[in-house]
Amino acid sequence: MEKRVLFRSAWLPWVLLAPQLVIISVFFFWPAGQALVQSFQMQDSFGMSTEWVGLDNFKTLFEDPGYLASFKTTAFFSILVAAVGICLSLMLAIFADRIIKGAIVYKTALLLPYAVAPAVAGVLWMFMFSPSLGVVAYMLRQSGFDWNHMLNSDHAMALIVIAAVWKQISYNFLFFLAGLQSIPKSLIEAAAIDGAGPWRRFWSIQFPLLSPTTFFLLVINVVYAFFDTFAIVDSTTQGGPGRDTSILVYKVYHDGFKAMDMGGSAAQSVVLMAIVVVLTVIQFRYVEKKVQY
């Protein structure tokens, strides 16, 4: 039987929603509206004069080979961050769910990276992989692997993917662990009695029951890779070498605040927002059909 909350007053629900509506309006709708207006304008470097140019900013964007290359870079980066982050977090959650002794210490250690700011996470991994000072780079050289993310594009991409996955792994781990602990133990025990091994029990019982959690984390990780990884890229590679790690969100910042192209940067932010909205709709429209609630 469906339960509904009934309010005696018609204005009380709106009063309860008002704080959240104000926050969303001030920090999302207002900046998004400003970006949309600026995307049809051209400003000088000091913002003293503004000229309405219509769709010229968007036309210039899609005629720029560097901007089109950023699409490929962002797609590759986002797929790696989402796939590696979700798979690794799921594996760690499975191990943590089976630990009996010292489980609190193990789980707390896995949750600590979430408390680290993205910029700090980027600086941390940048120092560890620094060609001249980094501990990890030194160990790689000792094993015969010449690491240098400042000159090698593949190394630079690997570095920002590692840093982004490490920063997000705690968030994914927390949800997967909660999902695993919510699965009735009786189902696992019944499958074990029937002779199903650990791998069979995971694929037949645990993973299907985790599909809502996996779908939720897929959406969150795609949004994270597109928007929240700017600080990591800025503190590690700054889009280099060349433009090989200049993902779309970093290019918005670079063109707007370094190249001082406010109109082009606003147009890029509108395109980026549209891409994320379309990807989210596609995930809910098609991927959600495979989710077992």
From TrEMBL:
Coiled-coil features, chain-numbered ranges: none
Protein's recorded name: sn-glycerol-3-phosphate transport system permease protein UgpA
Keyword Transport: yes
Assembly and binders: The complex is composed of two ATP-binding proteins (UgpC), two transmembrane proteins (UgpA and UgpE) and a solute-binding protein (UgpB).
Location, primary (coarse class): membrane
Family membership noted in the UniProt record: Belongs to the binding-protein-dependent transport system permease family.
Membrane-spanning segments: 12-32, 75-96, 108-136, 156-178, 209-227, 266-287
Family annotation (PANTHER family): BLL4140 PROTEIN, SN-GLYCEROL-3-PHOSPHATE TRANSPORT SYSTEM PERMEASE PROTEIN UGPA
PROSITE patterns: ABC_TM1
ABC transmembrane type-1 domain: residues covered: 71-283
Compartments, as annotated in UniProt: Cell inner membrane; Cell membrane
Source species, domain of life: Bacteria
Keyword tags: Cell inner membrane, Cell membrane, Membrane, Transmembrane, Transmembrane helix, Transport
Membrane topology: Multi-pass membrane protein
Pfam name, any one: BPD_transp_1
UniProt KW ATP-binding keyword: no
